[in-house]
UniProtKB/TrEMBL annotation:
InterPro entries for the chain: ClpP/crotonase-like_dom_sf (IPR029045), Enoyl-CoA_hydra/iso (IPR001753), Enoyl-CoA_hydra_C (IPR014748)
Residue ranges of coiled coil: none
Pfam families, alphabetized: ECH_1 (PF00378)
Keyword Ribosomal protein: no
PANTHER family listed in its UniProt record: ENOYL-COA HYDRATASE DOMAIN-CONTAINING PROTEIN 2, MITOCHONDRIAL (PTHR11941:SF44), ENOYL-COA HYDRATASE-RELATED (PTHR11941)
Keywords attached to this entry: Lyase
Protein name, UniProt field: Enoyl-CoA hydratase domain containing 2
MF terms (GO), sorted A to Z: lyase activity
CDD domains per the UniProt record, alphabetical: crotonase-like (cd06558)
Gene giving rise to this polypeptide: ECHDC2
Length: 255
């Protein structure tokens, strides 16, 4: 199921059209985007490429990532989004503490708000450790808001108060991550697992997947939220019913 990506695929800057090859200047961007092709068309990857700081969340990094997410949100070709690290051996080192040390209190407040917005955009709970208290800081919004929902308040407090680091297997056992895989020689085993999962999601009806995500995310915050009626008038719902009746594979268009 895991296929080798075609060598013709290139990372592209946000300003160019889909499928364009990247230039040497683009290679210096901390956030790069590419859309996969062929059978994987509909899957888009965001490459985090800040090796000098182990992909730490600095101002430029966050700005480029927010820009990428804003543009991809309006791209109807995108059905599944994969975050990928271009730095071997690390995914994201968290907030850039060296950069933050140079900020004024007002600047720190603004930057924390931007980080909170970024975490809400990504809506990711892949937390491997909330070590902020070991640096005299508070965990970000992604940790303090979502961790109790995954683990319960008592265990969430324990992880935050101790600043404990977790291995992938420990995080999976606690329910913090869905999958933990043994590393391969290339150091990209997690990426291949993510790609395989994206390939499972890709054939499903885009609107139904989007509404399912909304129902889960918002349902935690708004009791009684029901988005089913929003899906009733869609062409994809009618296509799914027709395909079931005609015993064929549905062809979803995201409408």
């Amino acid at each position: 199921m895991l296929r080798t990506l075609a060598s013709a695929l290139r990372w592209r800057p946000l300003e160019k059209t889909r499928g364009c090859a990247s230039s040497p200047v683009d290679a210096g961007r901390e956030i790069q985007v590419r859309a996969l092709e062929g059978l994987d068309q509909g899957i888009t990857e965001i490459l985090m490429n800040r090796p000098s700081a182990r992909n730490a969340l600095g101002n430029v990094f966050v700005s480029q990532l927010l820009e990428a997410l804003a543009q991809l949100r309006e791209d109807r070709h995108v059905r599944v989004l994969i975050f990928r690290s271009g730095v071997k051996g690390v995914f994201c080192a968290g907030a850039d503490l060296k950069e933050r040390e140079q900020m004024s209190e007002a600047e720190v407040g603004v930057f924390v708000q931007r980080l909170r917005g970024l975490m809400n955009e990504i809506a990711s709970s892949a937390v491997m450790g909330l070590i902020e208290t070991t640096r005299g800081l508070l965990p970000g919004a992604g940790g303090t808001q979502r961790l109790p929902r995954c683990l319960g308040v008592a265990l969430a407090k324990e992880l935050i108060f101790t600043g404990r680091r977790l291995s992938g297997m420990q995080a999976q056992a606690l329910g913090l991550v869905n999958h933990a895989v043994a590393q391969n020689e290339e150091g990209n085993a997690a990426y291949h697992r993510a790609l395989a999962l994206a390939q499972e999601i890709l054939p499903q009806a885009p609107i139904a997947v989007r509404l399912g995500k909304l129902a889960i995310d918002r349902g935690i915050e708004v009791r009684g939220l029901w988005v089913g009626p929003w899906n009733i008038p869609t062409r994809d719902r009618l296509e799914g019913m027709a395909a079931f009746r005609e015993k064929r594979t549905p062809k979803f268009v995201g409408e």
